[in-house]
C-alpha cells in the first residue's frame, strides 16, 4: 500500500525565498513600446521640421515714397511647375509689423518683385512664409 507523500519541505531561512516566475516579458514589452513611441516622435519631427517644399529669401528692399517698400524675393521650391504664395511684411523703426502682403508666385518664376504698403515708415522687410496652398482670391486661372 503506497501512500502519497508530500514533497519534502525545506528548512526555513536556509535556502532563501522560493523563486518567482521570470518577469522578462515586461522588459520586452516596455522596450517595444519605447521603440514605437520613439519612431512616431522622429517621424512627426521630420514631417514638421524638415525642409520646406517652398521658401523665399529676401534679396533686396528699398523704401518708396508714401510709406511703401519694394521687396525682391528669390523663391526656391521642390516643384517649379507649381504656383505658390508667400507672405512678405515690412517693419517700422520699433520692429513692429507695419505692412503685410500675400504674393502670388507664378509657376517657374524664381525671382519676384513686390510693393508692400505700410501704415508707418518702413525700415526693413522680411518673408514671413510660403506655401503651395493658394487662397481662392489669389489664384489665377
Description:
The mean pLDDT is 84. The chain has a domain of 78 residues: Immunoglobulin-like. It is an alpha+beta fold and 141 residues long. It has one helix and six strands, in the order H-E-E-E-E-E-E. The N and C termini lie far apart (103 Å). This is DUF4307 domain-containing protein. It holds the Pfam family DUF4307. It comes from Amycolatopsis methanolica 239. Keywords: Membrane, Transmembrane, Transmembrane helix.
CATH topological fold name of one domain: Immunoglobulin-like
Q: Please write the CATH class name of one domain.
A: Mainly Beta
Radius of gyration: 33 Å
Q: Count of DSSP helices?
A: 1
Strand order of the main beta sheet, please?
A: 1-2-5
The rough form would be described as rod-shaped
Q: SSE string, helix = H, strand = E?
A: HEEEEEE
Class by alpha and beta content: alpha+beta
β content, as a range?
A: 35-45%
Nutshell version of this structure?
This protein has 141 residues and is of the alpha+beta class. Helix content is 18%, strand content 38%.
List its traits.
membrane; alpha+beta; three-stranded antiparallel sheet; single chain; transmembrane; 141 residues; transmembrane helix; 18% helix; Immunoglobulin-like
Q: What is the element layout, followed by pairings?
A:
Layout: H1 24-49, E1 54-64, E2 68-77, E3 84-91, E4 97-105, E5 111-117, E6 124-131
Antiparallel strand pairs: 1-2, 2-5, 3-4, 3-6
Amino acid at each position: 500500500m503506497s501512500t502519497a507523500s508530500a514533497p519534502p519541505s525545506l528548512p526555513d531561512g536556509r535556502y532563501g525565498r522560493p523563486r518567482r516566475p521570470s518577469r522578462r516579458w515586461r522588459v520586452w514589452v516596455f522596450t517595444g513600446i519605447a521603440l514605437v513611441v520613439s519612431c512616431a516622435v522622429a517621424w512627426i519631427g521630420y514631417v514638421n521640421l524638415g525642409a520646406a517644399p517652398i521658401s523665399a529669401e529676401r534679396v533686396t528692399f528699398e523704401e518708396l515714397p508714401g510709406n511703401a517698400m519694394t521687396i525682391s524675393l528669390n523663391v526656391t521650391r521642390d516643384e517649379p511647375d507649381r504656383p505658390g504664395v508667400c507672405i512678405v511684411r515690412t517693419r517700422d523703426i520699433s520692429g513692429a509689423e507695419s505692412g503685410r502682403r500675400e504674393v502670388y508666385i507664378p509657376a517657374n518664376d524664381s525671382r519676384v518683385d513686390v510693393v508692400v504698403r505700410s501704415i508707418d515708415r518702413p525700415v526693413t522687410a522680411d518673408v514671413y512664409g510660403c506655401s503651395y496652398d493658394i487662397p481662392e482670391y489669389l489664384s489665377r486661372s
